[in-house]
Write a structure and sequence with these properties.
single chain; 15% strand; 14 helices; 2 domains; 376 residues; Aspartate Aminotransferase, domain 2; 5-stranded mixed sheet; Aspartate Aminotransferase, domain 1; alpha/beta; 7-stranded mixed sheet
């Protein structure tokens, strides 16, 4: 059968590819497809798209963002190595650094990256990796990627950056000196809240090292999820630019609301790292579709506020086309001691907000009316 060239990339929903002779078997094991955990066309196609977006040499697709992080760390680190990690970090990445890595004899030091001197002071002869998100989850603190790259490379270490909150539409960390970029593709890159995957973008030499560990750990991405995300990638530029512009507009409106004590978004002049944001991002409207804000720590009124929202709704994810709320104290950072959370700026009154593709003025009106419960 000859189907010519398909308009959309096909789904290869198979666990294995067949071969007719030992010669073909040898050829396939060297350069073609064999078994789904080893390689798959859908993963490869998605990886090529990610590499293009991130301006990287090569990319690997994983079962999740956490699968991408842990598999990579297990590849590039060994017992006795030391990692410097941003203290303002996603809760489960915090657990990887403080609970999982020590079981393999890997030491992690968590410091406040807002002051770059803290990173310099944390360097040890055994330091092999510096790790941060572009924008911290959920406080939005910005990592000074060029400064971190200089520190890492002058000390023989690698710089690994999580680009989930921003994506390559906003910033390309490799262009600023990062060696490895991770994305939880489940979020903005997919954009439709219907598939889970993660990616690593780095040099071909490093992906060649990570690939066999990915097979051994069982963390390659699912072909169907990769196929879904390849579709989602066709609208990423349209979606992200609208989401980022709307987030900047909504952040300004929330900052002016008398019931909101603080708003975290890098576009705001009040944001402590606004000058760094202007250095790293092209404009206020192309920084991130994420923000966080703090309201009074009154659980009864917080419940009423959530119930009054019409467009935004609570969900334990981010980056979809619908605006979603998340409460870090009861979700991503629930396992952390309250004093540690507060040091990071995370209080029981904080909400993380992922802005969707709804009209920005409609979102502002929705939040404005819902926040009135705090005046009752």
């Amino acid at each position: 059968m000859n189907f010519n060239k398909p308009e959309a990339f096909p789904l290869f929903a198979v666990t294995a590819f067949t071969m007719n002779s030992l010669d073909e078997v040898k050829e396939c094991y060297n350069s073609r497809y064999t078994y789904v955990r080893t390689n798959n066309p859908n993963r490869d196609a998605l990886g090529q798209i990610v590499s293009y977006l991130e301006a990287g040499e090569d990319s690997l697709i994983f079962s999740s963002g956490m699968g991408a992080i842990t598999t990579t760390l297990m590849t590039i680190l060994k017992p006795g190595d030391h990692v410097i990690c941003n203290r303002n970090i996603y809760g489960e990445t915090f657990d990887v650094m403080t609970k999982l890595m020590p079981t393999f004899g890997i030491e992690s030091t968590l410091v406040d990256f807002d002051d770059i001197e803290n990173v310099k002071k944390a360097i040890k002869p055994s330091t092999k990796l510096i790790y941060s998100e572009v924008l911290a989850n959920p406080t939005m603190n910005i990592a000074d990627i060029p400064a971190l790259a200089e520190i890492a490379h002058s000390n023989g270490a690698l710089l690994m950056i999580d680009n989930t909150f921003t994506t390559a539409i906003a910033i390309k960390p490799i262009a600023f000196g990062a060696d490895i970029v991770i994305n939880s593709m489940t979020k903005f890159m997919n954009g439709h809240s219907d598939a889970i995957s993660g990616s690593i973008t780095t040099t071909k030499a490093l992906t060649d090292m990570i690939h066999p560990i990915r097979m051994l750990c069982g963390t390659p991405g699912d072909p169907h999820a990769a196929w879904m995300m390849t579709r989602g990638m066709q609208t990423i530029d349209l979606r992200l630019k609208k989401q980022m512009a709307s987030a900047a507009k909504l952040a300004k409106a929330l900052e002016q609301n008398k019931y909101v004590s603080k708003v975290n978004h890098p576009s705001l002049e009040s944001f402590p790292q606004n000058a760094l944001a202007k250095k790293l991002f092209a404009s206020d409207d192309t920084m991130s579709g994420m923000l966080s804000f703090i309201i009074p720590e009154d659980e009864e009124k917080i419940n009423k506020f959530m119930l009054k929202l019409n467009l935004a709704h609570y969900a334990t994810t981010l980056g979809g086309i619908r605006t979603t709320l998340n409460h870090p104290v009861t979700s991503s950072h629930s396992h952390m001691p309250d004093d540690e959370r507060r040091k990071m700026g995370i209080t029981p009154g904080m909400f993380r907000l992922s802005v969707g593709i709804e009209d920005a003025d409609d979102l502002i009106a929705d939040f404005t009316q819902a926040l009135e419960v705090f005046g009752e």
